[in-house]
Description:
The structure is a homodimer. Chain A is of the alpha+beta class. In chain A, 28% of the residues lie in helices and 33% in strands. Chain A folds into 2 domains: 8-79, Orthogonal Bundle (Arc Repressor Mutant, subunit A), CATH 1.10.10; 82-236, Chorismate lyase. Chain A contains 8 helices and 10 strands. In chain A, the strands form 3 sheets. Chain A has a 6-stranded antiparallel β-sheet with strand order 4-5-6-9-8-7. Chain A has a two-stranded antiparallel ribbon with strand order 1-2. The first copy, chain A, has a two-stranded parallel sheet with strand order 3-10. In chain A, helix 1 (8-22) packs across helix 3 (45-57). The longest helix of chain A is centred in the N-terminal third of the chain and has 15 residues, at 8-22. Strand 7 of chain A pairs antiparallel with strand 10 (235-239) of chain B, so a sheet runs across the interface. Chains A, B: Residues 6-74 form the HTH gntR-type domain. Chains A, B: Pfam families: GntR, UTRA.
Amino acid sequence: xxxxxxxxxxxxxxxxxxxxxxxxxxxxxxxxxxxxxxxxxxxxxxxxxxxxxxxxxxxxxxxxxxxxxxxxxxxxxxxxxxxxxxxxxxxxxxxxxxxxxxxxxxxxxxxxxxxxxxxxxxxxxxxxxxxxxxxxxxxxxxxxxxxxxxxxxxxxxxxxxxxxxxxxxxxxxxxxxxxxxxxxxxxxxxxxxxxxxxxxxxxxxxxxxxxxxxxxxxxxxxxxxxxxxxxxxxxxxxxx
Amino acid sequence: xxxxxxxxxxxxxxxxxxxxxxxxxxxxxxxxxxxxxxxxxxxxxxxxxxxxxxxxxxxxxxxxxxxxxxxxxxxxxxxxxxxxxxxxxxxxxxxxxxxxxxxxxxxxxxxxxxxxxxxxxxxxxxxxxxxxxxxxxxxxxxxxxxxxxxxxxxxxxxxxxxxxxxxxxxxxxxxxxxxxxxxxxxxxxxxxxxxxxxxxxxxxxxxxxxxxxxxxxxxxxxxxxxxxxxxxxxxxxxxx
Lengths: 240, 240
């Protein structure tokens, strides 16, 4: 999934994490002062505090009253991306520090099988578009994805879009911006035929995220299976 | 992690999911009426509605005003356990439909290395207890776990506890009940030496959850690495 817009606060949160990486801060290290960070990022203090609050809630930062903000031990776990954040695969890949290229492996018009139809809340046999892509960085394959979209979204123009670009951005332009998803994660290997066809035998264990993406009006616009290379990605979350 | 108590509403939520499995309900199928479910589960209507509301929020159930409750397409994804729920490995294993046996592979008193010390917010070299266990069902290995606990929690009695039982229940009895965690998930293989030593070569890809567990007062009481057999488990979540 791609998501064209990220709120200022989210962007700032990510910039603070980048700063933590750049400064090689470890557990117990003090972050720069509010004043220094507001200047560095050219943002207002209230916006900065909102982003810092997010990181505090994610247990990345500990606040010691009167002393400042310190990197929490949890930061080691939490600097990975929150698994509960809806964002594009491209954003997720780049936030892990990779510069990604997208390779279009194929697209086709297909009839929905029973499972895919149920995922997209469509009748069995409904026309879908199936898009198969590979994200790589420096020649290393990172994410193998298959996306299914209702054919009806595209009118007669489904061969026109540039499928190597952001599907979410494309949907947003069509007024169908995906804003949330329900998802499922497990560990698996790439399907053997896929690994062979695309020379991905060395991909290793994959974190498979299956996802149904919803537009703001609740309609289902994408069903996606994203295989994240296990050695390259991890995701964080809080359990209560 | 073990968690001794589950709220009535959570328990009822899980019982409703079990019922959905038992009745082999699929997408679009109607659930029994509120009256039928209240009788079946011997609970009050407000408690029942609270559990159903949870399932609605998790996109397992669709409510059609005046018509009743129906299994949502998302149910197929969401009947897996929410990854954001803090619960014991035993509870999680049994909610996936397995009857688990716990095998104690080893325990030892060790000095904290830098990473483990940071995870538990202790100085490097602090004394820890390391517990290594395997959950299986019907002879099939399901979860390989290593837990580290601050030695200081146990006074001089650390050899006494029954490490094949619930660590969380044990901590609860000691007034250190873990109530939440920060965690990280990735796909990997078992460490080769572990696989060989414990004859787990056929375990396959694992969903590794690394977790820092917190007692109610915010102290860190467990650092755990749980390798979930990929072919046996999946977890659900919502992205926004």
